[in-house]
Specification:
The complex is a heterodimer of chains A (419) and B (161). Chain A has 419 residues and is of the alpha/beta class. Chain A has 14 helices and 18 strands. Chain A has 2 domains: 258 residues, Aconitase, domain 3, CATH 3.30.499; 147 residues, Aconitase, domain 3 (2-Layer Sandwich). Classes of the chains: A alpha/beta (419), B alpha/beta (161).
């Protein structure tokens, strides 16, 4: 039976020859993930189930990243619960401060995910790992708690929507613009219960960093997972990071898709999501020059080295506009270190940025860089719901790192072309 | 499994940041979480919600983050059930897992209004609008999901088996 890459991974992990959309299957989990917000509840579920041992101490990752370094007593307690569980069960991949960073940046970087894997995480942006040709989906804490005990979960096989990107990208247009454009096309509920498969000649040329950005935001259309077929670029990324080679699967040519969209990219401009929804998309030429109070470069969407490098290249020798607070957060300690080595950190400091420790930062309005009433921010993160980054009467716009960098200098939402 | 209460009406795409903003997620205690349910969207909610009240909404209820604290805060605040045209995937799964009834209906959100009285019979999937004197039927769910709800959540369901 012809299958998509998602169906192939699910079939293999369910011990089946084939699966088709709509079927409920029980699958083996290769890696289970939780963070400082979701782990404590999952641990409570694990204990209430009466479980004594975790299913496999090497297949669990616990990453404190949302409110670290601990922002208050309550957050410190949450991390403590997570740390104590990790110690008790000798969890191999618990990331202590100094090693920790954003979960979805760290895990691929450490080679913990290979193509063909099945990863379940108690975080909605777990879908990020689809960039490596893995199946990965977010769940809540109870599901994750049960997985910690059993290593298994049940899933409904999703039907797949195929996205085919064709043409040639203009300068200043990349993965973030492609996914924002796609969200505008599909809407925030356009892919609920579906898999998004990113294909076409354009995706073949995208770096891993840009693929992570795109897969990361699949959930913003309601998707269960977003996935790329792994290729030479994936292989190169893996070779530097993992001993495991992974299973490089591809969709069959006659696989069944519920829907297909062809997206021509030749005339695509940088895209911006206006408040208060990630599907409220406009090309930059149609966005009002909104005056900004804050610009944030970071997050599991755009906190990778390439993102910082692109911004720094554009910002060399310039200054942040008066009245703009420019916050940059590298996604992991190794990105931070490399950014220092390459002079990116110095460039950003000279520009007037503040550089935070690797963590989720202001993305979710809980820690470091919260907005006051009436303030406006441009962010490279993934969500701009009401109150997402602070006061319910603040506003968040979403863009790529280069648009964020240009806007920080100009002081209003602007294209790199305007510099 | 009967639930009766007053209707609280919401629109489409109510996200989990609106159900409970992330700044309140530094604790795991459900009673603390419940205090901040709909804090930004409807600050009066937590003061006025009655046990068994029903949240009625449009499409894609619970979109956004995977935080199970969202259905947990609603359940602990006293909300008896959510009836929406559709739900976001993770929220839907989380709700069943903690034994919090969520029902899909196209009709109910169109026909009932804020403050109406509604009663639910979960075993039949029947919803009665008292003011409308009308019976509605939610989209049926598989037996094992109803059993999870009956048990009070996934943990209780698995322990029984």
């Amino acid at each position: 039976m012809p299958m998509t890459i998602t169906e192939k991974i699910l079939a293999e992990h369910a011990g089946r020859e084939a699966v088709s959309p709509g079927e409920l299957v029980q699958v083996d989990v290769d890696l289970a993930l939780a963070n400082d917000i979701t782990a404590p509840l999952a641990i409570d579920v694990f204990d209430r189930l009466g479980a004594r041992e975790v299913f496999d101490r090497e297949k669990i990752a616990l990453v404190p990243d949302h409110f670290v370094p601990n922002k208050d007593i309550e957050s410190a307690q949450q991390v403590k619960v997570t740390r104590e569980f990790a110690r008790k069960h000798r969890i191999k991949h618990f990331f202590e401060l100094g090693e920790t960073g954003i979960e979805h940046v760290i895990l691929p970087e450490k080679g913990l995910i290979t193509p063909g894997d099945l990863i379940i995480g108690a975080d909605s942006h777990t879908c990020t790992y689809g960039a490596l040709g893995a199946f990965s989906a977010g769940v809540g804490s109870t599901d994750l708690g049960a997985i910690l005990a059993t290593g298994k979960t049940w899933l409904k096989v999703p039907a797949t929507i195929k996205l085919v990107y064709e043409g040639e990208l203009s300068p200043w247009v990349g993965g973030k613009d492609l996914i924002l454009y796609t969200l505008g096309l599909l809407g925030v509920s356009g892919a609920v219960y579906h898999s998004l498969e990113f294909t076409g000649e354009v995706t073949e040329g995208l770096s891993m960093s840009q693929r992570f950005t795109m897969a990361n935001m699949a959930v913003e259309a309601g998707a269960k997972n977003g996935i790329f077929e792994p290729d030479e670029i994936t292989k190169e990324y893996m070779e530097e990071r993992s001993d495991r080679s992974g299973n490089f699967l591809k969709s069959d040519l006659d696989a069944c898709y519920e829907n297909k969209f062809k997206i021509r990219v030749d005339d695509m401009e940088p895209q911006v999501a206006l408040p208060h929804s990630p599907d409220n998309i406009r090309p930059i030429s149609e966005v009002d020059p909104v005056v900004l109070d804050q610009v944030f470069l970071g997050s599991c969407t755009n906190g990778r080295l390439e993102d910082l490098r692109d911004a720094a290249r554009l910002l060399e020798g310039r200054k942040v506009a008066d009245g703009v607070r420019f916050i940059v957060i590298p996604g992991s300690p190794s990105i931070y270190r490399e950014a220092i080595k390459e002079g990116i950190v110095e460039t950003l400091l000279d520009v007037g940025a503040v550089i935070g420790p690797p963590c989720c930062g202001p993305c979710l309005g809980g820690h470091m860089g919260i907005l006051a009433e009436g303030e406006r921010a441009l962010s490279t993160s993934n969500r701009n719901f009401v109150g997402r980054m602070g006061h319910p009467k603040s506003e968040v716009y979403l863009s790529s790192p280069v648009v964020a960098a240009a806007s920080a200098v100009i002081g209003r939402i602007a294209s790199p072309e305007d510099l | 499994m009967k639930i009766e209460g007053k209707v609280w009406m919401f629109g489409d795409h109510v996200d989990t940041d609106l159900i409970i903003p992330a700044r309140y997620l530094n604790v795991s205690d459900k009673n603390e979480l419940a205090k901040h349910c709909f804090a930004d969207l409807r600050p009066e909610f937590i003061k006025e919600v009655g046990v068994g009240d029903i949240v009625v909404a449009g499409i894609n209820f619970g979109c956004g983050s995977s935080r199970e604290q969202a259905p947990l805060a609603m359940k602990t605040a006293g909300v008896g059930a959510v009836i929406a045209k559709s739900f976001a995937r993770i929220f839907y799964r989380n709700a069943f897992n903690i034994g919090f009834p969520v029902l899909e209906s196209e009709e109910v959100p169109e026909q009932v209004r804020e403050g109406d009285s509604v009663s639910l019979d979960l075993s039949k999937g029947e919803i009665v609008g008292i003011e409308q004197d009308k019976h509605f039927y939610a989209r049926p769910i598989p037996d094992f999901m109803r059993d999870i709800l009956k048990a009070g959540g996934l943990v209780e369901y698995l322990k029984k088996r």
